[in-house]
Amino acid sequence: MTNREKIIEAKCIAALIFTLPLISAFYVANANPVIFDIRSYGAKPNQDISQALSKAWKDATASRNPSKIVIPAGKWMLSQAALKGPNLAPLELENQGIVQAYSNLNSMADNQGQWITIDYVNYFTLSGGVFDGQGQQAWKMNDCNTNKNCPKLPLNLSFNFITNSIIRDVTTKDSKSWHANCISSRNVSFTRFTVSAPGNSPNTDGIHVARSTMVSITDSMIGTGDDCISMGDELSQVHIRNVTCGPGHGISIGSLGRSTAEKDIRGIYVQNCTFVNTQNGVRIKTWPSAPATLRVSDLHFEDLIMKNAGNPVVFDQQYCPWHQCTLDKPSLIQISGVTINNVRGTTYSTRAVTLDCSWMKPCLDVHIGDINISYNGSRSTRGAFKTTCANVHPNFFGKQNPPIC
Fold it and tell me: 119, 151, 379, 386: which one has the fewest Cβ atoms less than 10 Å from its Cβ?
């Protein structure tokens, strides 16, 4: 085992040692919870459960004993829910049925807010069921590619300032915007999390994570119309494992650089993931001609399978969609400490690997191991299949097919 492999292994073990006692204690404490069934608060199937859920939440968070709010089997309508802590004891919200949003935005008390927001909780679990945003009507309103003042559409599940928490066995369907975000949080696990939306649903990122530390996304299926997982700034120790992405735009860091307030990203692990008919595989996006000077470091993209995935590996430091910027100045974001290893499968694009780094801040300490990617696109462009590199000098180990840089 090389020194670099020993360091990576040590980091993973340290993260696991830190996390397991918290989660184990959580489950022991929450073994025999007090039950708060929303039907006891007047909830009825196919009717709006907003008030009943809010009342059950208020009582459960005030309980000094572990508690569980139950949404029973069946179909339930929910206009909007803003669920805030703190909670005094471990708390679970268990959905056994299908919770549906109204398709009409006017049904929301705050139509510029989110559909379900959960804030300021500790030792919290959201488990089970389907959360259906019924976003088909709202998608027609999304013109953000041409309109800077496009309407802000609500996302399905918004988690903010949560700690030591688990989201498991949950399905989010047809969100009007992003399916879930996790902001300003610590030690949060998404496991067996399913995102279901068509590939043409606009701006429907599966999970967006930012300003957080120790977030894991594991054993999950994410199919949507934008990034399966997107990562913003001020992140550390994000572990993404055993995730199948597709349809979607891939797993992305960024876009970054448009604000001077953005902070560093370090310790991102994308491992044992599969990309099926996606627009991209793994991607880093930074804006040129932008003021931010943050650093993006300690990145690991390993053991990835591409099944007809476009652009399997992309570092794009000239990210400028819809001509929203200029290319006259380079990105000021430094990318360093990167391992890309054991990426295999097929792609329909003519670029197997693209490392387009900034000339002002070249990518540093980049290590590329075994790459085995085959082109299955048009016969007429087969000869154009290659890799592209700019402002980077990788260190190689193993074999690369096609040759890198």
Answer: 379
Q: What is the pTM of this model?
A: 0.92
Instruction: Output the 3-class SS for the chain.
Output: CCHHHHHHHHHHHHHHHHHHHHHHHHHHHCCCCEEEEHHHHCCCCCCECHHHHHHHHHHHHHCCCCEEEEECCCEEECCCEEEECCCCCCEEEEECCEEECCCCHHHCCCCCCCCEEEECCECEEEECCEEECCCHHHHCCCCCCCCCCCCCCCCCEEEECCEEEEEECCEEECCCCCCEEEECCEEEEEECCEEECCCCCCCCCCEEEECEEEEEEEEEEEECCCCCEEECCCEEEEEEEEEEECCCCCEEEEEECCCCCCCCEEEEEEECCEEECCCCCEEEEECCCCCCCCEEEEEEEEEEEEECCCCCEEEECCCCHHHCCCCCCCCCCEEEEEEEEEEEEEECCCEEEEEECCCCCCEEEEEECCEEEEECCCHHHHHHCEEEEECECCEECCCEECCCC
CB 71 within 8 A of CB 97: yes
CA distance 380 to 302: 31
* pLDDT score of 144: 74
For residue 49, how far is the Cα from the chain centroid?
28
Please state, in angstroms and rounded to a whole number, the distance separating the CA atoms of residues 73 and 37: 11
Asked if residue 146 lies in contact with residue 124, where contact means CB atoms within 8 angstroms, the answer is no
Active site residue 249: yes
Could you give the C-alpha distances from 198 to 152, 175, 226, in angstroms and in order?
20, 10, 10
Average pLDDT for runs of 10 along the chain of length 405: 47 46 47 94 95 98 98 97 98 98 84 88 98 96 77 94 98 98 98 98 97 98 98 98 98 94 97 98 94 95 98 96 80 97 97 96 98 89 87 97 93
Residue 44 confidence (pLDDT): 95
